[in-house]
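In response to the reviewer comment on reproducibility (Comment 2.3), we provide here a single inverse folding case reported in full, input and output, so that an independent group could reproduce the run without further information from us. The structure tokens appear first.
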């Protein structure tokens, strides 16, 4: 999830790269200026499902 405006968030699918000591490289899917949600993503996802009736990740290749 990334912040688009005050109290407005958008789900973003990213491609992961290398992992090292708890850090993970984001290879694609984000812009340098994106503000990424690092706490509260579960609540955003739950609210999305409640309002839209579907998981934003449903049908995406994992």
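Designed residues, in position order:
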């Amino acid at each position: 999830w990334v912040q688009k405006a005050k109290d407005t968030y958008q789900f973003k699918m990213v491609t992961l790269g290398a992992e090292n000591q708890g850090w993970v490289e984001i290879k694609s899917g984000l812009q340098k200026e994106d503000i990424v949600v690092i706490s509260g993503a579960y609540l955003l996802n739950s609210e999305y499902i409640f309002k839209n009736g579907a998981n934003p990740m449903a049908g995406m290749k994992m």
